[in-house]
Amino acid sequence: MPAEQQNRIRVTEYLDLDVENEKWFCNRCGHELGGARENYKRGCLLYDRDPREIHPPLVSSEFNFSPDPLWVRIVEFYCPSCGVQMETEYLPPGHPLTWDIEIDLDRLKQRLKTGEFKIRKQRLEVSE
Amino acid sequence: MPIPTLAEKLQWLKPVPATPYERECAAKLAQGDYEIGAQITNDILDEAMEIFVRSSRSYFGVSGDSMVAIFTAGGDLINASCGTYLHAIIQPIVIKFIQKYYAENPGIFDGDIWYTNDALYGGIHNPDQVALMPVFHKGKLLAWASAALHTTETGAIEPGGMPVSAKSRFEEGLNMPPIKIGEKFKIRNDFLEMYSVYGLRAPAMFISDLRARCTTADRVRVRLIELVEKRGEVYLIGLLRKMQDTAEIGARKKIKDLPDGKFRTVVFNDAIGYTPALVRSCYLTLIKDGGRLIFNFEGTSPENPSSYNVHTQAVVGHIANFMYEYIFHDLPICSSTFSAIDFEFPEGIILNPDKMAATSCCVYIGMQCRCATHNSFAKMSFSSASLWRQVAAAPGSQHSAQICAGLSQWKLAISDVLSFSLNTQGQGGRASTDGMDSYGFAWCAFGRAPDSEQVESELPLSVMLSQHWRDSCGHGIHRGGSGAVQEWMIHKVPNLVSLCMGNGSKVPLGQPLFGGYASAPIPGITVKKNDLLKQMKEGNSELTMDLREMIEKPTVHGDWKYELVARTPKVFEEGDLLFGFSGGGPGYGDPLERDPETVMEDLKNHIISDWTAVNIYKIVYGAERRKVDTEKTKQQRQEERRSRLARGKSYDEFEKDWNKKSPPKEALLYYGTWPDAKSTGPVFRP
């Protein structure tokens, strides 16, 4: 792992946080996804997926083991560089996208600075 | 009327501060006393749970959907055997209510048996009933013992204890605030008579379960008295104090390990009663602020005139299920673990309805709070070295809760739920591995699928198939656990009434995690006037008992119906078929990263279909020997990644089209205003 990546914190399976520079990065390819005071989804590519393409109907009926595409869609979020699927949300069509991760960067920096937290193997460890 | 207010309930969830006497007793514990003592409480509770399971009659009781617990004299939970954690954190509300309002009249005495099933006063919903006994020694109150269990009958407007069509609490049958039902270690006969008329549909089950709760609570009481006789009062008081302190220290340490911030999840439900309807069943903002965790539910849909509302403490109960299964799994089940956790409920939302609201089907909405907690917690804790391994997608929570009522083949009145399709739900995909197949009941991790032969001997049914159903799980690097299906044939009676509760027919429940997909929806399926028995008699070799084969190339002929899973009571005749499904768990991570050989294992085990292996996981393999072509698979997956880059839009570009869309108007009957889910006016209830 490149040295600059070692100090990034893994916030999800695919999302890394560079606390010092306040930036989001793709964990798989290292592509920058924007400022960490913003929703990382703003740095992704988005796709409105018909849920029947993932959960195909098994019988011809209104109730058929498949989601109703008028009621729910799958919003897929991709890394714009490597194409990994970073996140999915099952939302009614038109429902606002969720700002799911809003880390208090100031407090995190402070906890790292005071030594309460240290970054080890890309994770936050509490100093005993 | 002293119905507890929201403020009182939230205050009573918090432990009573330690008294100087408790501190003094705790200080006197010798080395090893705590460890041995804590284990003794486990043993007492496990013995009592065994008694509970063996003496209960309802299938929830037999399956272990129950809790036995010990509390301090002040009413705080010390330890429990579960069963379900649903009741764990919230039962102190009931004890503290009794102590505040009934200490003088009728008074609290040795040998009392207290009882309640009213969610307005601190329970989950009215089929969940609890017996509580004070533990006195030499005239001094030292502790409380309780036994809680879901019984599938309440004398409501529909059989089964969870009337789907109830519009207010007045249609839910028995809703009993905390009341003393026994004195001097005996249940009062006048109470038993009053109680039993609410169980006329299934008197044997109804009364047996009541007695099972009482006898279980009493066994805990007896064992605690034996412990005091052997080790003294100071030991017990000190032990209970130290268990609270230890649990609180452990919980606070885990919370401290988390980064501060706000972590949001939104989840939806697709039915209100028997009506397909979209609601924003939980909009959770989980706030980590210093040493505190705050669950804020601003933005959740308004209450509605059905039984799909949740009283606030029942939301906490659902969250406790997650907390003890994943985060606090190594701590005593103790009120003090929630000392640093607070809850904020706006008035009038589906999670904080009016006191006249029906809430008997609250669990369908409450479960969505648990599902939302999974995702918010995952996003808060994945960065933590100590907690990331506990990250998991929500459990599969869609299911058919099929109620059967009528006369059994033994001419006994019955009203019970077929709990196989509850207790076999799939676990959500985890950070380090797949979710477990049929891991348990999302409401009760330790619930057991009932024995099919026992079901057949007690209920007028034959179990025709039990299996994992293909593609029920959510896909991902770590897929969700598979759900299961059972097919029941009405047998040895001319007819039977059946209705079904449930949700998840139009919208998958529970969001997936980190790029995975949710699990498949479930329909309600019945087949009336079919030829299955005839074909079995004739020995038709083409007959299959595999679900996918049955529905894709039907060999059983009859009146197949696919409906919303929640269905009104109907009369079924001998030979008619009912299908019950439990949902799979949502997936974790991008499916393109799943190990191809693991996908092949899933195929071999009938967990997924060939269609899924090819179209979702993009595996290339030979049709006959199912050997993966590694190079071509790599190419297929790379091609799919390129397709994503080609079809994906920037956030702003995506929102331009997306924001113009909305679901059909008829879907939003109970949603509130679109899209922010504000109340559209008062709710009128009969």
Write a brief structural summary.
Chain A is mainly beta and 128 residues long. Chain A has helices spanning 3-6, 105-113; strands spanning 9-10, 15-18, 23-26, 32-35, 45-49, 73-78, 85-91, 101-103, 117-120, 123-126.
Write a concise keyword list for the protein shown above.
heterodimer; A: 128 residues; mainly beta; four-stranded antiparallel beta sheet; 34% strand; B: 686 residues; alpha+beta; 20 strands; globular
Describe this structure in words.
The complex is a heterodimer of chains A (128) and B (686). Chain A is mainly beta and 128 residues long. The two termini of chain A are 27 Å apart. Chain A is elongated, with a radius of gyration of 18 Å. In chain A, the strands form three sheets. In chain A, strands 1-2-3-4 form a four-stranded antiparallel sheet, with no helix packed on it. Chain A is built from two helices and ten strands. Chain A has one domain (3-126). With 686 residues, chain B is of the alpha+beta class. Helices cover 32% and strands 21% of the residues of chain B. Chain B contains 17 helices and 20 strands. A seven-stranded antiparallel sheet of chain B has the order 2-1-5-4-3-6-7, with helices on both faces. In chain B, a hairpin with a 2-residue loop joins strand 9 and strand 10.
